[in-house]
């Protein structure tokens, strides 16, 4: 791989981390602003409530849409934990989401401490 991260064909070489991507164009920002103005949180809540009602009434599309937001789309690299692990954590009183949030908070605090110059001479 060359310094540019490309192979001899000029395409991105394997292992190239890529870049930040193309920044949003002004027109994309303008369109998003219009969407957000037309769909405030109250409107979004009504849409979600309708999707929940439709899903409960057997609408597979509504169910899939909600699942995409609630549990994400299936991925070959991220698999759901086995039901026995979920049950064991529940029986043990372990809240894995709370523990992950606490880990993230500890890492942020450690980063802040390290970036403050603590321990430097």
Question: Please, could you describe this protein's structure?
Answer:
The protein is mainly alpha-helical and 121 residues long. It has a domain at 81-121. The chain has helices spanning 26-38, 41-56, 60-70, 83-91, 96-115. It starts with 25 loop residues before the first helix and ends in a 6-residue tail after the last helix. The chain is built from five helices and no strands.
Which percent range describes the beta-strand content? under 5%
Distance between the termini: 39 Å
Mean pLDDT: 84
Summarize the helix and strand pattern as letters: HHHHH
User: What is the number of beta strands?
Assistant: 0
Largest sheet: none
Instruction: Specify the number of helices.
Output: 5
What structural class do you assign from the helix and strand content? mainly alpha
Q: Spans with pLDDT under 50 lasting ≥5 residues?
A: none
Give me the Rg, rounded: 23 Å
Q: So what's the overall shape?
A: extended
Q: Roughly what percent helix?
A: 55-70%
Write the layout of secondary structure elements.
Blueprint: H1 26-38, H2 41-56, H3 60-70, H4 83-91, H5 96-115
Compose a concise summary of this entry.
This protein is an all-alpha fold and 121 residues long.
């Amino acid at each position: 791989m060359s310094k540019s991260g490309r192979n001899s064909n000029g395409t991105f070489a394997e292992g190239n981390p890529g870049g930040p991507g193309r920044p949003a164009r002004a027109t994309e920002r303008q369109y998003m602003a219009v969407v957000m103005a037309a769909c405030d949180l109250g409107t979004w809540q009504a849409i979600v409530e309708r999707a929940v009602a439709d899903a409960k009434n057997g609408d597979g599309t509504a169910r899939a849409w909600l699942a995409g937001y609630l549990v994400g789309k299936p991925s070959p690299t991220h698999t759901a934990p086995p039901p026995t692990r979920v049950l064991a954590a529940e029986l043990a009183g372990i809240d894995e989401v709370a523990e992950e949030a606490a880990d993230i908070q500890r890492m942020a605090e450690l980063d802040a401490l390290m970036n403050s110059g603590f321990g430097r001479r």
